[in-house]
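Each letter names a residue; structure tokens follow underneath. Both lines appear below:
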Amino acid sequence: MNHPDPKAARAADRARVVVIDAKIHQLEQRIHALQTELESCQERLDTYKYPVLTLPNEIVSEIFMHFLPPYPTCPRLAGLGLPTSLTHICREWREIALATPKLWQAFCTVYTANKAEQTRVMETWLDRSGSCPLSIQM
């Protein structure tokens, strides 16, 4: 039976450690280069301003008004066409939608077993509608 020479095995392992360490160093350098490139790309993206976000809030608010059915028609109860849909696009649109009372002046409500939730939703819409005339469909 042949037994490997322990001295030769240790020497081979030491040589292999040097090779592996060199490969790890090369990969770390490549990772660093990619991270630097990623940061550079992200910085350029962060400075980009989408054209729609350069519009004055008043114009965006007016566009939002055309997203809904004309007052006093109430928007559908679910899905697209609700002012809440506009609040899910981005932070800027959320702020504009929440600051536009006319978006919240018409709403439909249906009977639900959860009266507390129904009341909370109605109070939220009423608060957001400000002093606008209301159209409530039950």
Residues 109 and 138 are 5 Å apart (CA to CA). The beta strands are 106-108, 135-137. Residues 6-47 form the longest helix (42 residues). The helical segments are 6-47, 57-65, 83-86, 91-98, 115-129.
